[in-house]
Amino acid sequence: MAVLMPKPSAAVLGRRAAIVSALKAIVPGEGVVDAANEMRVFESDGLTAYRQMPLVVVLPETVDQVAAVLRYCHAERIPVVPRGSGTSLSGGALPLEDGVLLVLSRFNRVLDIDFDNRCAVVQPGVTNLGITRAVEHRGFYYAPDPSSQIACSIGGNVAENSGGVHSLKYGLTANNVLGIEFVTIEGEVIRLGGKHLDSEGYDLLGLMTGSEGLLGVVTEVTVRILQAPETARAVLIGFPSSEQAGAAVAAIIAEGIIPGGMEMMDRPAIHAAEDFVHAGYPRDVEALLIVELDGPKAEVDHLLAAVERISHTHGCASAKVSQSDEERAAFWAGRKAAFPAVGRISPDYYCMDGTIPRKELPKVLAGMKDLSVKHGLRVANVFHAGDGNLHPLILYDANKPGELESAEEFGNDILRLCVAVGGVLTGEHGVGVEKRDLMPEMFSDDDLKHQQRVKCAFDSEHLLNPGKVFPLLHRCAELGRMHVHKGQVAFPDLPRF
Amino acid sequence: MAVLMPKPSAAVLGRRAAIVSALKAIVPGEGVVDAANEMRVFESDGLTAYRQMPLVVVLPETVDQVAAVLRYCHAERIPVVPRGSGTSLSGGALPLEDGVLLVLSRFNRVLDIDFDNRCAVVQPGVTNLGITRAVEHRGFYYAPDPSSQIACSIGGNVAENSGGVHSLKYGLTANNVLGIEFVTIEGEVIRLGGKHLDSEGYDLLGLMTGSEGLLGVVTEVTVRILQAPETARAVLIGFPSSEQAGAAVAAIIAEGIIPGGMEMMDRPAIHAAEDFVHAGYPRDVEALLIVELDGPKAEVDHLLAAVERISHTHGCASAKVSQSDEERAAFWAGRKAAFPAVGRISPDYYCMDGTIPRKELPKVLAGMKDLSVKHGLRVANVFHAGDGNLHPLILYDANKPGELESAEEFGNDILRLCVAVGGVLTGEHGVGVEKRDLMPEMFSDDDLKHQQRVKCAFDSEHLLNPGKVFPLLHRCAELGRMHVHKGQVAFPDLPRF
What we know:
FAD-linked_OxidoTrans_Type4 (chains A, B), flavoprotein (chains A, B), FAD (chains A, B), globular, Uridine Diphospho-n-acetylenolpyruvylglucosamine Reductase, domain 3, Lactate dehydrogenase (chains A, B)
């Protein structure tokens, strides 16, 4: 694809053998991968259209090793790309030709489970679902549930501030992480937060969450665990139009009901999912809501009745309540398999991730129909309807000349539409390389410079994950924060941008 | 009190007349207050033991005026202390002798109420309760409720990340602010967040929330508004010991119940409050829990029964459920008046604000009893029990030689105890000047330097609220982020630290 990455440093490329040796001294055994056939698996992440072989792959096992690798790369001016499980949908873990790929998958231990304080301390390579597996014997779980939860790592969740279908009620990663340990590019080990409520000082924990690997490398995560609700039931509600479904969503929220999850799929997504997993979805509707209510049984019964009443008021065609936990899981299985299901009906698809103020949903859906005609491509829609997070899946065929480019343009137009109605470029997938060049659609030059001043506070040489998030990185000294007088500032090496 | 503030700049003090004239040109009319008798009211905030007259007071009315004042102060190297309603309990708005006090009280308009998207856009001088007053005709309210909510401003709430008795269920200010506009010390106007879910880029909104006026001046706030719950009932539960009450709190949370509020008071606080407002509190117990359940009536009835059952299991002496909204308000009136109530039984009191992991409550209560003996001073305890946030009120008499110093030492010992059990120095009152010199008890030198690198990214001259939060501010160039080569960095004026 046509994303421009920073020009690789000839100096770094020329020193590859020495760099590999130095890294092997820091991480002995099988912790350094430098053979091309073994590095191939790390060539891309979940955004598979982008591929790049790294300079070398390092898989450290201890915090000391991480700090030593970063200190070495800082001293030698070698870029570093951190990677968890590599499920990023925005290319956040895309390697650099002249960069060390720092893979945290060997940090896979659960360090402490503290049921009294309702938290768990885990290493960043533990999978999202792995946390729930570690605490479910006592009736607890970890709430944010990306569709990739069986594979994605909690470290990657922190980097991307990942969400899931239950984030409407229980929040994104940022709302469920209590503390982290991370290592700066200079090799300092910093601990933020812990098992307590708010803390003094700037909210660096919040800043690190969603920073996409540009500020530091997370080596430990303390997460909140929740007791599983006494009861959870889901209801499938079919509507003759997306507009009616959208209005029902607004009415449910307006009545003060916060469902555990409230998802919406349009006809193409419904059919693709039903054909794939046979979840029991109705085929004769234009829009489907999956609404889950959880809590004490008395509350769930009361809220289910309210949701059904509101849905009928808004003209629903059908409503089916799950009668068992198995049926509830089946309802969700269709939604969680929507992406691969769409993969079965189209040679390729491109998943977008815009967020809009909830009430703009009808306007954006209508706009998307127009764009579909304009670009000559179909789109299947899957929404986190309750919180306004859209996941349009653009269907295309990479083997047909020009279709990939059309899909990219279509995606960009959708995101511009999201911004135009007061929304933003991403809800949970991150900017990465995918949305990097759209950042000026959203932010003014002052806004972007202010973000980068924070980047400079952590990594003034732009060595951590360069080429991601920011379309242009200013030299830190250019950002107006240095007051140089009767002297001069010069850099030993020119920075990469 | 004995807090060391930065040495005032003789250059600034000597230019006072010129500075006042320049400010009057920017903010005409009655927007500049420079007469000593008129400035007296701004001499301290809620931490009344600390007093300092400012250089001059400015009350701008427009964002352009705020930007112009900040640009002027930046160019002239004049410190600026932002102030909302001045209810800070940590001295966050304490003036500086050589500093402009920038008061936002004229920013008092509600700009937009958007019920569909459940948010309101307000100016920072609007009071916390003023937001609820503006939306309650449609059944909505703003959730975080500091005891000072009738007076404190939403801008100040953002600066301190304020909480209240309902923060257990509904979160602190950080969880309820969707967007802000703020002005940097250089006069740039930056907008963060808005009416949508998550956004791309670093979480500068989270960073600004709780930054205590050291990073910028907030000029607009977008907050989430919630629909008032269908039903809310409170129950007063008396216990023969604080340990039993603490165990009941843990058991309630462990059962998956998140009450709207769960507060605890000890015997001295109960008696002081009951004598003051006649809330109907039992006098014959050692600890009192006030637990509020809210939601649909069916849920509230179910949860009330569960809370009563758990309380009896843990040996409660009495339980009284509110039978009307008036009675519920009375139950809370005692708690919300606890600080002034304690003021009636002691010439002076000193309110601390530590936070601990919930399960350490018995250990900390026992430790506080020992400290009370050691320092020869009584203490009354009011807790946000559900989230581990303690507010010990140390009773002393400022007219007795040495008692103020003993109270300060007692307070410091309590905070050290909080940190020792894995807690932190503040839950919601901020660091300000009060807890500034205790920061090294909590943070390593690396931690503090990393915080200050962020400060430098926003305000490299340390002009915004200097002397607050950090015991020592390093010069930005000392923090190791500048790589100077064949040249020299020098500052036109030496920074203040």
